[in-house]
Task: inverse folding
C-alpha cells in the first residue's frame, strides 16, 4: 500500500525523470544500479514493475527493451536478496527469526552485488558505442513538492521498519502498519484543500484498491499448504532424506537455489523453514543466510522462477525461450559467482 501511494503521487517519476543520458551502456548501468538499491528498499516485484515500465517508455527498439528488462529482473532479485524487506523469502526468514536484519545486510551485500555485476558486464558488451535517438520532453509532474515529500517519507518509513522491530521487539507487521498510519495522516493533511475527486485519487483508500490482492492470496495459499505438510511431519522426513543423500548443508542450499529457477522460491523457503528448526540451525546460521541468497537469486536463471521475472515478462513481452537461450546462462554465472563469493567470505572471516 505504501508503494502504491508513492506511485499515485508520481514519486517514482521523480527518479526516472533524472535519467538523461543517451549512451545505452550508461543507461543500462544507471537502471541496473537503481533497480538493485530500490528493490532492497521497496521489494523486487514492485521495483521490477516500475523499472520495466520505464525501460519500455525509454527504448523504442524491441531487442534493446528485452535485454534491459532481463537485466532489471537479475538486478531486482539480487537487490532483494540482501534486504529483509527486498524479497518475500527474506521477509519470511526475518519474521521466522531465522535471520536478523543487520546480519543479512552485512553478509549478503557484497555477494548480491556480484550476482548483479557479472551479468551486467556481459550484457553491457552488447551496447558498446550505441546511442539513443533524441526524444521529446517528458510530461511534467503535477505536484512535484507533494511527490518529493511522499517519496522521501515513504522510503524513510520503510527503512524504519527493521529499526522499529529492533527497538520495540514487536512483530514487523506492526512497524509497517505504523508507517502506513503516519503516511496516511501526512497525505490526508496534505490534500485537505484539494477538490474531492483529486483527493480521493491520492488517498490511502484508493491505493488499497490497487494493491495486488491475488498475489497476497497466492502467498497465503502456499504458506497454508506448507504448514499442512509440516503438521503431518512430511517436511522433517524430507529433511532427513536430503541430509542422508547429499550430506552437505551448503550443497542442499545451492540445490534449492537452482530448483527455485523452476519452482517459486516462496514454497521452497517455507518448506525449508518447516524442514529445519532453530535447533538444527540457530538464528543467523550460514544455512539461512545462504538460503536467502540462493533462493532469492536462483529465480533469475529461468524467467518464470521469480515474481519479478513473471511481471517483467508480461510488461516487456519477453518470450520464455528468448530469455532461456540468451540470458539464462548469464544469470547462472552471476548466481554461481555470488554463492562462491559468499562461501569464500565465510572461509576468510
Result:
Amino acid at each position: 500500500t505504501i508503494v502504491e501511494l508513492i506511485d499515485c503521487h508520481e514519486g517514482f517519476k521523480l527518479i526516472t525523470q533524472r535519467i538523461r543520458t543517451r549512451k545505452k551502456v550508461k543507461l543500462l548501468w544507471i537502471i541496473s544500479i537503481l533497480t538493485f538499491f530500490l528493490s532492497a528498499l521497496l521489494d523486487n516485484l514492485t521495483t521490477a514493475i516500475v523499472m520495466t515500465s520505464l525501460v519500455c517508455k525509454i527504448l523504442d527498439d524491441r531487442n534493446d527493451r528485452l535485454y534491459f528488462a532481463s537485466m532489471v529482473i537479475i538486478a531486482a532479485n539480487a537487490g532483494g536478496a540482501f534486504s529483509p524487506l527486498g524479497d518475500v523469502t527474506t521477509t519470511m526468514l526475518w519474521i521466522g527469526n531465522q535471520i536478523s536484519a543487520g546480519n543479512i545486510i552485512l553478509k549478503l551485500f557484497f555477494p548480491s552485488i556480484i550476482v548483479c555485476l557479472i551479468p551486467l558486464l556481459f550484457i553491457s558488451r552488447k551496447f558498446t558505442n550505441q546511442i539513443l535517438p533524441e526524444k521529446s520532453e517528458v510530461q511534467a509532474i503535477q505536484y512535484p513538492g507533494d511527490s518529493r515529500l511522499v517519496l522521501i517519507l515513504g522510503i524513510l518509513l520503510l527503512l524504519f521498519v527493521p529499526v522499529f522491530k529492533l527497538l520495540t521487539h514487536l512483530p514487523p507487521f506492526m512497524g509497517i502498519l505504523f508507517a502506513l498510519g503516519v503516511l496516511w495522516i501526512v497525505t490526508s493533511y496534505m490534500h485537505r484543500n484539494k477538490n474531492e475527486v483529486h483527493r480521493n485519487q491520492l488517498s490511502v483508500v484508493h491505493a488499497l484498491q490497487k494493491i495486488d490482492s491475488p498475489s497476497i492470496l497466492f502467498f497465503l495459499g502456499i504458506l497454508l499448504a506448507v504448514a499442512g505438510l509440516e503438521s503431518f511431519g512430511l517436511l522433517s522426513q524430507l529433511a532427513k532424506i536430503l541430509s542422508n543423500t547429499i550430506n552437505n548443508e551448503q550443497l542442499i542450499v545451492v540445490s534449492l537455489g537452482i530448483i527455485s529457477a523452476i519452482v517459486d522460491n516462496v514454497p521452497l523457503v517455507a518448506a525449508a523453514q518447516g524442514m529445519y528448526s532453530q535447533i538444527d540451525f540457530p538464528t543467523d546460521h550460514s544455512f539461512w543466510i545462504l538460503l536467502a541468497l540462493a533462493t532469492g537469486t536462483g529465480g533469475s536463471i529461468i524467467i518464470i522462477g521469480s515474481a519479478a521475472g513473471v511481471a517483467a515478462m508480461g510488461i516487456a513481452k519477453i518470450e520464455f525461450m528468448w530469455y532461456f537461450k540468451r540470458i539464462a546462462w548469464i544469470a547462472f554465472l552471476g548466481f554461481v559467482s555470488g554463492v562462491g563469493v559468499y562461501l569464500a567470505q565465510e572461509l576468510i572471516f
Remarks:
- The CA atoms of residues 8 and 202 lie 6 Å apart.
- The first helix runs from residue 2 to 8.
